[in-house]
Amino acid sequence: MTLIRRHQQRPLVTQPGRNGATFSEATIAGHVKRAKQLINHAVELGCISTNPFNKLKAGSQANDERKQYVPTVTIQKVIDAAPDAEWRLLIALVRYAGLRNPSESLRLRWSDIDWAEGRMNVTSPKTKRQGKAGRSVPIFAALRPFLEDAYEAADDGAEYCISRYRSQDINLRTGLERIIAKAHVTPWPRLWHNLRASAETDLVKSFPAHVAAAWLGHTPTVAVKHYLTVVDEDFERAANWSVNQVGQGVG
């Protein structure tokens, strides 16, 4: 704590490590935020009188350098390389419906699927802490075939949509890395997160931002900060865009 009191501008966490590498600003911001929360809790418990991190600015946890849009043509190659219907569904749930993986994808039950209404009830531990235990998400046209295939392949009486890969011993990131390698696709950073972010980037092109954010289970502010990306298609559309397409205004 004495060191922290003397260094209020984050030099300790910005210095290079033994291998010369430094943390990104987003990583540093995350560490500072968690440290402040931890020490605030210690203050509340009466363990210490003040929080030496109070004047330490956390900064932004957004890291645009690690954002990468994953095109549907790329993810289709990955899906085609997946070993079974459940893996194909797992990838599709994240890329086409934007579910958090594994916290939401592995909790999805067949009883949550409303085939007739074209919706599914997604249980979310993350938003439950904010008073919203779940949300309704459309069964998008791109997702439906994978749901149907997994349903046909499921054992009689199966409860969960993803049954085979629920064990804590199974590393879904490593599994996805192997499938990507098999598909001869170059891996992208933050494998699962960027699939979810790509889903939202697609959705905002056709639906209002608040609608897309509601389906993803966060706010439009969070979407802009951590999810949405500019893609090549945006530049192509801009090249043929004119202000006359939206009117000249009034007055």
What does this structure look like?
This protein has twelve helices and three strands; from the N terminus they run αααααββαβαααααα. α5 (85-97) runs antiparallel to α7 (144-153). β1 and β2 (119-123) form a beta hairpin. It has 251 residues and is mainly alpha-helical. The protein has two domains: 2-61, no CATH class; 67-235, Intergrase catalytic core (hpI Integrase, Chain A). The chain has helices spanning 2-6, 11-14, 25-44, 72-81, 85-97, 125-128, 144-153, 172-182, 191-203, 209-216, 220-226, 232-239, and strands spanning 113-114, 119-123, 134-138. The relative contact order is 0.11. Strands 1-2-3 form a three-stranded antiparallel beta sheet.
Can I get a quick summary?
It contains twelve helices and three strands. It has 251 residues and is mainly alpha-helical. A three-stranded antiparallel β-sheet has the order 1-2-3.
What are the main properties of this structure?
globular; 251 residues; 2 domains; hpI Integrase, Chain A
- Percent helix range: 40-55%
CATH-defined topology of the largest domain = hpI Integrase, Chain A
User: Into how many domains do the coordinates divide?
Assistant: 2
Low-pLDDT runs of 5+ residues are 1-9
Query: How confident overall, as mean pLDDT?
Result: 86
Please describe the biggest sheet, giving its number of strands, its sense, and whether it closes into a barrel.
Answer: 3 strands, antiparallel
Please identify the top-level CATH class of the largest domain: Mainly Alpha
Rg? 22 Å
Inertia-based shape: globular
C-alpha end-to-end distance? 62 Å
CATH architecture designation of the largest domain: Orthogonal Bundle
Widest sheet, order of strands: 1-2-3
Structural class: mainly alpha
- What is the percentage of strand-forming residues? under 5%
| CATH superfamily caption of the largest domain | Intergrase catalytic core
- The tally of beta strands, per DSSP, is 3
What count of helical segments does DSSP give?
A: 12
Helix and strand sequence: HHHHHEEHEHHHHHH
